[in-house]
Design a protein that fits this description.
The protein contains 17 helices and 39 strands. By secondary structure, it is an alpha+beta fold. The chain has a domain of about 300 residues: Beta-galactosidase, Chain A, domain 5 (Distorted Sandwich), CATH 2.70.98. Helix 7 runs parallel beside helix 10, helix 8 packs antiparallel against helix 10 and helix 10 runs antiparallel to helix 11. It is globular.
Length: about 750
């Protein structure tokens, strides 16, 4: 799925150490198709507290409402109003969920409906201006103009911290909207419950049926002063009210329940008085949420929490120190690094308990449990980036995947999972790539034999998405299962990844079986036209076929021109299929220089003109390795040209700074790797294909205490061609690096020039 955008604020924060967060501009969604949130969170935090700017329903007149796609992350930069601040968000996904527990401060007559963007005065929403908005890592600030309320947000891993500065008012309201959600519908809420434990502590839960079809989130909310009065409105259609009707449950009744409710908590405030709220989440219980709250923020010192949470960001962003050609490049780089550390998300209480895929309570023993695995995207570059910058954390993510497998009634590793649910989004079984890549690169923090068994079992689950045909036939017939070519190609790569791990473990049987399966890409290549093409169950190729059309042609989020190149694990074989080096070079040149008319992607909301160069679709992940394929032809200078062009034209430090959805960090991870000068074309291999570094220099601090230093001599916007590479003082003549060589500490020097070096 697709992805994200940037925030136009220069950050100035005084912290004793080097301040990397001053180079971050948290992205937002605008006219391009990326979506993210500009709110408060810590690296990989469970709480991702952010403003939401509208409340569109997923459906309209019983059909999908296309406009809701703009609100995958809840926030749109071009909107003029804010409806409130919710605690859970995805970063740059092309489908969505979450938006839990929206809070909105107001004054004056109580309004429990959100109102409309055209008439914000008709509800509790408020107009605002970007001139009164600040977005920093772990901090967000905005003025709500309609009520003259200053909002400040920060967060720890499991707790959101709100600070609202009010004008003088007879009555101030804190609205808790449990109906609000992202990609919500009239039927999304299953049940909600709120309970006043005392005059400052409120607990409850929300159960929803959405992208995650059985999802329950518990909360504990506490105020820094006693609640004066409270109440709620229920918007259910149910006739049955039970014997609760003997009470007036709408006012000062300490239990609130229903499918759709909005609650309010009222206070009297003086001018410039602050109401503070700490809001903790748990997947386990309200007791767990309360423990998270007390443990992570035991006091009411907002500035301390903000400072400590920003220090966490400085630490993580400081793992890579760069010098760049321009300030724009530096801000784009650190914004990308910020995105890369937003997810997957911590998904357990402070005591290690979490709700598992089986909906039972488990305890993570010896590891941190994570959720939000957008694996169709992140296996390509994000998890490989973690193998360099975050190997321990990546090992915990793999252990989380293996726990998912243990709890799965399907006996499968995650496909696209979040919040104790598998949502089955996208294709492939790319957990196997993440595991194999980590193992091949020396990450041994999990049971490798068990992991291989889980990988094999997942790849042999025949009722999953066409495997019933793929396993016996070697391809998926388009007349039996849609997106058949994409699935065949991605399964073939995943099978290769399984084979690599089996080989390293000495399992010859599995190695042979999956090496053979990894050749299945050949079965959907039509030599008569020189492209991958859907094949039918009778063995013939589909007759009505377009190589340019992105919809209904056997591919997902791409066309045949792009997907034909998806054989990252066996590029030499692909070159031969297409007709040898010369023909393959012509193919790549044509891809980048031809024109793809709008009509060929008009029916695909995940592809827009901003993400396209020629017919190369950078805004969608299946093509992310393509610019590096020239290296297999001995034409590395073309790779160098292309990657610098992509970095320059498809990434920026502006509100629309990405050309496609960030997909939980994948789009940003591509940029990080490419800016450093290399890229993992085939995760599961130790090789990184060399490109053209954008940085002038970089220092990467590894967890093992070693350092990778990168220097690009004579670096400039025109000097994009690599003339010579020195690795640890010796000339390096290969067009790839080896993971084990650089992870022991390395000094890499690129000598750059304005003229292509073609030998």
């Amino acid at each position: 799925m697709k992805k994200i955008f940037l925030f136009p604020f220069i950050i100035s924060i005084i912290i004793a150490q080097t301040n990397f967060i001053q180079y971050v501009k948290p992205l937002t969604g605008t006219q391009r198709m990326g979506h993210t949130f500009p709110g408060a969170t810590v690296p990989f935090g469970m709480v991702q507290l952010s403003p939401d700017t509208d409340t569109l329903l997923y459906e309209k007149d019983g059909k999908y409402q296309k406009e809701v796609y703009q609100y995958c992350a809840g926030y749109q930069y071009e909107d003029k109003t804010i409806v409130g601040f919710s605690h859970t968000h995805f970063s740059g996904t092309g489908h969505s969920d979450l938006g839990d527990f929206l809070i909105m401060p107001t004054t004056g007559p109580l309004q429990l409906n959100p109102g409309t963007a055209d008439h914000p005065e008709s509800g509790y929403r408020s107009s605002y201006s970007h001139s009164n908005e600040i977005a920093e890592p772990a901090y967000y600030k905005v003025k709500l103009d309609d009520n003259n309320i200053t909002v400040e947000l920060t967060a720890t891993a499991r707790v959101g911290f709100h600070q609202y500065t009010f004008p003088s008012a007879d009555t101030a309201h804190i609205i808790l909207d449990l109906m609000h959600g992202i990609y919500t519908s009239n039927e999304k809420n299953v049940w909600t419950f709120v309970r006043l434990e005392n005059d400052t502590l409120v607990t409850g839960f929300r159960q929803t049926n959405g992208w995650a079809r059985t999802r329950t989130v518990y909360f504990a909310m506490t105020f820094n002063r006693p609640i004066a009065s409270y109440g709620h409105a229920r918007y259910d259609q149910s006739v049955y009210r039970g014997f609760w009707r003997k009470f007036d449950v709408t006012k000062n009744f300490p239990e609130m329940a229903g499918k759709n409710i909005r609650a309010c908590f009222n206070f009297a405030v003086n001018s410039n008085e602050k109401i503070k709220i700490k809001f903790a989440l748990s997947s386990v219980s309200t007791e767990g949420a309360t423990k998270n709250l007390i443990t992570e923020i035991p006091d009411w010192d907002f500035e301390r929490v903000k400072h400590e949470s920003q220090a966490l960001w400085n630490k993580e962003l400081g793992t890579v120190e760069i010098e760049s050609i321009t300030q724009k490049d530096k801000e784009t780089f650190y914004t990308s690094l910020y995105h890369a550390f937003l997810s997957p998300n911590i998904y357990m209480d402070v005591d290690g308990q979490y709700k598992g895929l089986d909906q039972n309570i488990h305890r993570a023993e010896g590891f941190t449990n994570y959720t939000t695995f957008s694996l169709w995207d992140t296996y390509r570059a994000l998890h490989p980036l973690f193998n360099i910058l975050q190997p321990k954390r990546n090992g915990d993510m793999i252990r989380s995947m293996l726990a998912h497998y243990d709890q799965s009634v399907h006996h499968m590793l995650p496909v696209w999972s979040h919040y104790s649910n598998e949502n089955w989004c996208m294709i492939g079984y790319h957990s196997v790539s993440v595991i194999a890549d980590a193992y091949i690169k020396g990450n041994l923090s999990y049971d490798a034999a068990k992991a291989l068994n889980a990988m094999v079992t997942t790849a042999n689950q025949r009722y999953y998405d066409g495997l019933e045909y793929y396993i016996p036939m070697g391809y998926i017939p388009e007349d039996k299962n849609s997106s058949s070519v994409s699935k065949t190609l991605e399964y073939a790569y995943d099978d290769w990844a399984i084979a690599q791990m089996a080989k390293k473990l000495g399992n010859e049987k599995v190695f042979a079986e999956f090496s053979n399966r990894s050749e299945n890409f050949k079965n959907v290549f039509d030599p008569s036209i020189g492209f991958m093409r859907p094949k039918m169950s009778d063995g013939t190729f589909r007759k009505n076929f377009s190589t340019l059309e992105t919809d209904g042609q056997g591919f997902i989020e791409g066309n045949s021109w792009n997907y034909t190149l998806y054989v990252p694990h066996n590029v030499p074989a692909l070159i031969q299929l297409i007709g040898g080096n010369r023909r393959f070079s012509q193919y790549l040149d044509s891809l980048f220089t031809m024109h793809l008319p709008d009509e060929f992607f008009a029916n695909n909301e995940d592809i827009t003109r901003e993400g396209i160069i020629g017919n190369y679709v950078h805004g969608n992940e299946p093509s992310h390795h393509v610019a590096y394929l020239y290296n297999w032809l001995g034409e590395s200078w073309k790779t160098q040209e292309r990657v610098r062009m992509i970095m320059d034209s498809k990434y920026s430090n502006t509100p629309d700074g990405l050309s496609g959805n960030d997909d939980c960090g994948q789009m940003s991870a591509w940029y990080i790797f490419s800016a450093l000068g290399f890229y993992p074309v085939a995760p599961g291999s130790e090789q990184y294909s060399i490109g053209s570094p954008l940085v002038k220099s970089a220092t990467i601090k590894l967890e093992n205490g070693k350092t990778i230093s990168i220097e690009a001599k004579n670096q400039s916007a025109k000097n994009v061609y690599v003339q010579k590479i020195l690795l640890n003082g010796k000339e390096w003549k290969e067009n790839y690096f080896i993971h084990s060589n650089i992870m022991n500490g390395a000094n890499i020097v690129f000598e750059m020039g304005a003229k292509a070096k073609k030998k």
